[in-house]
Specification:
601 residues; alpha+beta; Rossmann fold; Elongation Factor Tu (Ef-tu), domain 3; Alpha-Beta Plaits; 5 domains; six-stranded mixed sheet; 14 helices; 31 strands; elongated
Length: 601
């Protein structure tokens, strides 16, 4: 058992694509945590999606043995955290398990929006911060300029920042020495009642849920009867151990150590990130602070393209849920698309990841409805409903008012893009703009924006108007009163429920025009005229018409009185009217995809 004074628990935090996973790889190699034969890039990113996209989705931990220059052996626990804003709660719990962080800044890009957000999160947890300048091997690297930014933007000592190249392996030894010398060892008393923080969990098909814990107080060993303080569940510990390259069983985990616990927990959903584990025989007086239940903020319905695949989709979502506790789902049905599932996600990246995993791991073809957010609808009788599905929107005459979620968006851009970014935010109903200049030629713009305006295609548009230089971070702040309506799309007078959506009244007409025009382009022509309408209640606000196939019934008339032709045309018109009443308009799958996957016009 390593002495507590020789344990260091730390994390690497950075803006997306600043080299976090690459630095983690070099640290693991430098400590001999993995043999050259077993090594591969992005070692802690187990999911193929993480490796392809170069992002971290799941939090990971690894314990590294390190012999420092002072001759002492240290136990370094690297807790790798997700970099995306969707998973910010997981990041906060992982940081709560650390005593210090390596704050990584790209020498070619400098300080960005999420660098600032991550710094503030680390300061909230009162962590020691070691600034590191990465990618010094790039021709565009500006190390001295980045040092100035670290001093001016972040308020840290830029002169103390270590200049490294994670790709080339330059100065990696200096980083390890800084971890040992500049970060404090964890506090905690091994003899106190057990308090262990759950910061992650993953599903093992043979062992059940493997829970990642940081032991704050006390000691945990196999055979202990434990109690999850927030979940209120009791389990018996089967095995504890450390995260080496592969899991390595240990006799016990003591205060200050990071490791795993296997206790016969059936699914990941039975654990909650941020929960406190204690002993049944000698429980802690109170759970560790900071726990909150993760709530989904973006909702969408998932349907199989072929209705026969419904059972396969049900099994696939169930298996995915074993590994992803933050995915919430329930059964849903649509007249147009058949049976499916209404799912809740942490954000748009989470939605994309779930969709891609379902399609690739389980070989399914899927249709997703327009992502929506959860609205608070206040009724005339004083009750409040949470509505995220247009199908559950109440009768407008019974509604007093509605509220929608708002976010505080922080956008960091080069100065030359101020105009285009301001215009984009104002188009998306942005309020309370605030400008600050953290450094020369760089502007931080903060806006209050409705979440519904951000989840559609805001991030893509921001990258377009800033030519890729804009960085974006947000946090959900509060609910504010809005003018909400339920927009229905009607085809030949029949409501297509899968295309209904909840929108701000001012946005309803552009959204309706976009939908009816796309449907008119993709629905095949019929023997009769087909009207496609966008409506709010009984009021039609947009319309497009698909003209009918028409046989030339007057072709056989070679002269004679005009009334002969008129008679034939009237007869044809009556026939088409009868056909329209009885006719059914089949809507192809590509029509749904055209409406749902394209941005607003």
């Amino acid at each position: 058992m390593t002495e507590r004074t020789r344990i260091r628990n730390f994390s690497i935090i950075a803006h997306i694509d600043h080299g976090k996973s690459t630095l983690a790889d070099r640290l693991i190699q430098a400590c001999g945590g993995v043999s050259d034969r077993d090594f591969y890039d992005q070692l802690l990113d187990n999911l193929y999606l993480e490796q392809e996209r170069g992002i971290t989705i799941k939090s990971q931990a690894i314990t590294l043995p390190y012999r420092a220059r002072d001759g002492q052996d240290y136990e370094l626990n690297l807790i790798d955290t997700p970099g995306h804003v969707d998973f910010s709660y997981e990041v906060s719990r992982a940081l709560n398990s650390c005593q210090g962080v390596l704050l990584l800044v790209d020498a070619s890009q400098g300080v960005e929006a999420q660098t600032l957000a991550n710094l503030y999160m680390a300061l909230e947890h009162d962590l020691e911060i070691i600034p590191i300048i990465n990618k010094i091997d790039l021709p565009s690297a500006d190390v001295e300029g980045t040092r100035i930014q670290i001093s001016e933007d972040l308020g840290l000592d830029g002169d103390e920042a270590l200049a490294v190249s994670a790709k080339e392996g330059t100065n990696i030894e200096e980083v390890l020495e800084a971890v040992v010398s500049r970060l404090p060892s964890p506090a905690g008393d091994p003899e106190a009642p057990l308090q262990a923080l759950i910061f992650d969990a993953q599903y093992d098909p043979y062992r059940g849920t493997v829970i990642s814990v940081c032991v704050k107080q006390g000691r945990i060993k196999s055979g202990d009867a434990v109690h999850f303080m927030h979940a209120g569940a009791n389990y018996k510990v089967e095995e504890v151990g450390l995260f080496r390259f592969k899991r390595e069983a240990a006799p016990a985990l003591e205060a200050g150590q990071v490791g795993y616990v296997i206790a016969g927990v059936k699914t990941v959903s039975d654990t909650q990130i941020g929960d406190t584990v204690t002993l049944q025989s000698r429980p802690a007086s109170a759970p560790l602070p900071g726990f909150k239940e993760v709530k989904p903020v973006v909702f969408s319905s998932i349907y199989p393209v072929a209705t026969d695949d419904y059972q396969e989709l049900a099994e696939a979502i169930e298996k995915l849920k074993l590994n992803d506790a933050s995915l919430i789902y329930g059964k849903d049905a649509s007249q147009a698309l058949g049976h499916g599932f209404r799912c809740g996600f942490l954000g748009l990246l989470h939605l994309e990841v779930v969709q891609e995993r379902l399609e690739r791991e389980f070989g399914l073809s899927l249709i997703l409805t327009v992502p929506s957010v959860s609205y608070h609808v206040y009724m005339n009788n004083g009750t409040m409903l949470e509505v995220e599905n247009p199908a559950h929107y109440p009768d407008p005459s019974t509604i007093d008012y509605s509220e929608e979620p708002y976010i505080k968006a922080s956008i960091l851009i080069p100065e030359r893009y101020i105009g285009s970014v301001m215009q984009l935010c104002l188009e998306r109903r942005g309020l309370n703009s605030n400008l600050s200049y953290p450094s020369r030629n760089r502007v931080e713009i903060t806006f209050d924006l409705p979440l519904a305006e951000v989840i559609y295609d805001f991030y893509d548009k921001l990258k377009t108007v800033t030519q890729g230089y804009g960085s974006f971070d947000y946090e959900i702040t509060d609910y504010r009163r809005g003018n909400l309506v339920c927009l229905d799309i009607l085809v030949n007078g029949e409501k297509v429920d899968a295309l209904s959506c909840l929108v701000e009244r001012d946005r309803a007409r552009p959204r309706a025009l976009h939908a009816v025009n796309r449907l008119a382009e993709t629905i095949p022509r019929q023997q009769f005229k087909v009207a496609i309408q966008g409506a709010i209640g009984g009021t039609v606000i947009a319309r497009s018409t698909i003209s009918a196939f028409r046989k030339d019934v007057t072709a056989k008339c070679y002269g004679g009185d005009v009334t002969r032709k008129r008679k034939l045309l009237e007869k044809q018109k009556e026939g088409k009217k009868r056909m329209k009443l009885a006719g059914n308009v089949p809507i192809p799958q590509k029509a749904f995809l055209a409406v749902l996957q394209s941005g607003e016009e």
